[in-house]
Amino acid sequence: MPRIVFRSPLQEFAVEVPDGTTILEAAERCGAQVGHSCGGVCACSTCHVWVKKGLESLPEQDDLELDRLDQAFDVKAISRLACQAKVSGEDLDVWITEESLKAFMDENPDVRKALEAEGKWPPPKFA
Ligand code: FES
Q1: Is 102 in the pocket of ligand 1 (CB under 6 A)?
Q2: Does residue 72's CB lie within 6 angstroms of at least one atom of ligand 1?
Q3: What is the Cα–Cα distance from 25 to 45, expressed in whole angstroms?
Q4: Each residue's pLDDT expressed in tens, for the chain with a length of 127 residues
Q5: Which of the following CATH numbers is that of domain 3-117: 3.10.20.30, 3.40.30.10, 3.40.50.1820, 2.30.29.30?
Q6: Which residues fall within 8 angstroms of residue 109, CB to CB, at 6 or more apart?
Q7: What is the number of the ligand 1 atom nearest to the C-alpha of 81?
Q8: How far is the CA of 65 from the centre of ligand 1 (A)?
Q9: Hey, where are the domains in the chain?
Q10: Is 97 strand, coil or helix?
Q11: Ligand 1 center to residue 63 CA distance, Å?
């Protein structure tokens, strides 16, 4: 099964998932902090991630994903919406964008408060 590694300034998690699993589903399985304000129906851009390894293995973006990514911040050639991109046979190295990490904290204020109490939120700037 493909191995997905999630990275952010706060954490690094890895999980193995079967083909056809979305990157967002993989994140939820391992506790990676990927925002998903619309619940994974391609109606926001809070699940925006950068796929730094394995990008070519993912199915092409459809028009809806491209339209949503137009609304995202700091979009790069390696940008994908985690709820739309399905794992397809290759390992992935996924970076959680600042936009997505902030959205996750907005969705999970208890997690943010705990990190603030530990002096870990907000994190250092993304490289
Ligand atoms: S969770 Fe909203 S577009 Fe992916």
Answers
A1: no
A2: no
A3: 16
A4: 999 999 999 999 999 999 999 999 999 999 999 999 999 999 999 999 999 999 999 999 999 999 999 999 999 999 999 999 999 999 999 999 999 999 999 999 999 999 999 999 998 875 4
A5: 3.10.20.30
A6: none
A7: 4
A8: 9
A9: 3-117
A10: coil
A11: 14
| Phi, psi for 4 (deg, rounded to 5) | -110, 125
Beta strands in the chain (DSSP E): 3-7, 12-16, 48-53, 79-81, 92-96
| pTM more than 0.85 | yes
Q: Is 21 helix (H, G, I), strand (E, B) or coil?
A: coil
CA distances from 56 to 9, 59, 93, 107, 118 (A): 25, 8, 12, 31, 38
Q: Is the CB of 81 under 6 A from ligand 1?
A: yes
d(CA 85, CA 106): 23
